[in-house]
């Protein structure tokens, strides 16, 4: 599929979906729509991913099949400054995909334009209608199930999941990411956005996801939120228990000391944080934190090496920055 | 309000809502509708609560304002064997209240009958439209916040909450229960059924509830589920963090060893379970388990005394069976 990705004034740091699509997706990104960086190319701003021109609006995008909303703001609201681009895309007959709490399908203008011009609206955050409570059966899955967890939101859990997938595939294993957020769903084309599911069914949704792929060697479940997060810890717990993992991988931003946006809540010491995850996992699947993933994007190369070493020591298990260094054998061995 | 309560073939053990209404509610219950026990009185089956005749169907109920569905089956589905009674109630112009996952308002026949005869349909499980993510502010509430938690679902958390309320009131304190389930909402007339909220907003819903009552001395937050439950632990976590409690009270059924309905999951040893709760609470509000509540309804009086003593020893804090013995000073002192 040929797509344009909308990321106004948010690329790359506040446009996780856009970055994920450019780095791990199977779609051909023909343009990034960002009025802030218009005129540049994607790799001028973010090296090492699929390149594409950055344009100011949908008017400047070449022919594409779909426009993907590549921003996931806190709260998930639709920003009215994106309306012109979505309108233009629909008038051109494109599909529009979004992972927002505000559904495109609830917007009368978008519904009308989609009908008139033959495009489709895809709300990636909309859960299936037939979810149920978990049955507690995810632990029976044959594949090795690895769940990524974090010290906060946006610590690289999705990135770590895809990097583990790629490293396992390089070893000849049949590995798949189990996507639980809008970016992962957008990248892979399947999954459930678990934080949108009603709370009673959240673990059940994860259980269904883990039981969906057949004959895999390794499933990497994308975690969400964090156990010490005052708002999102419930989702984290539902994924931790609903996936019944064999192993956990703890993701952290180097140097981060407080929960982002909730600065009065400090991130617990790492060894303590590991113990919180393991204590809570124990009654369901007895998983331990077997590896660490550190996001060192704010550091230079030398400091990054030191930071990974320090992180490794704090956790007592192999660690890596998966973006900078990939997933070395030692880390993959610890996980599998 | 004068009400009838529907509890077919479920009273009292599988009709928590009915029992709660009879024990703690302000409504006058004029009849319990239960084809199994028809002809008896409520107190023949369950001593120590508001009495009422038990009748076989809504046809035998004297004049009332409303029919309340007093059963909350696993999964929360509407049972078609209740349809005749709901139909009769609506034809008589009564309101109908239910805390099911299946909404009365989504049933065409009920909507039509309510409109025709002037009754109202109240889906107590339906959350407000304007919920948001938690802001992490519940800890700033002036009242002492006590959250009841459990080793499983149906361990008496709601009962414990109301008994603590009543004991605090007897001491002259202004105390209120913060209801998070359909029964508590039905009894008190306010609250949010948290397990029905989308997962991202569950902690936010609890935060809003805790911040709603003004000038209270004590708020007792009704917990849900259990941290070692394979399906409901996410809701438990959202309440634990969203309420930012000062104290936790652990509820348990004497002698229970496995999660009900998930028998392959054993309940962790009590001291370990306490530590799981405290470890997870620590990053948000540092609450500890300060008292225990034991449901000894399956035991005789002598065994109950022993069971409470054993429970107290396992937890290392004061304990009681609130139904049998109320909430003694020692327990209330430990909590407040």
Query: How many strands, what sense, and barrel or not for the largest sheet of chain A?
Result: 6 strands, parallel
Spatial order of the strands forming the largest sheet of chain A: 3-2-1-4-5-6
CATH structural architecture of the largest domain in chain A: 3-Layer(aba) Sandwich
Average pLDDT figure of chain A: 95
CATH class of the largest domain in chain A: Alpha Beta
Number of helices of chain A: 12
- Write down the oligomeric state: homodimer
CATH topology of the largest domain in chain A: Rossmann fold
Number of domains of chain A: 2
Provide the CATH superfamily of the largest domain in chain A.
P-loop containing nucleotide triphosphate hydrolases
Label the structural class of chain A. alpha/beta
Residue windows where pLDDT falls under 50 for at least 5 positions of chain A: none
Q: What is the C-alpha radius of gyration of chain A, as a whole number of Å? A: 20 Å
How do the SSEs of chain A run, as a string of H and E? EHEHEEHEHEEHEHHEHEEEHEHEHH
Query: Roughly what percent helix of chain A?
Result: 25-40%
Shape of chain A: globular
Distance between the termini of chain A: 33 Å
Count of individual beta strands of chain A: 14
Pfam family, one (chains A, B): DUF1611
Domain D-glutamate N-acetyltransferase-like C-terminal (chains A, B): 133-327
Domain D-glutamate N-acetyltransferase-like N-terminal (chains A, B): 35-127
Protein name (chains A, B): DUF1611 domain-containing protein
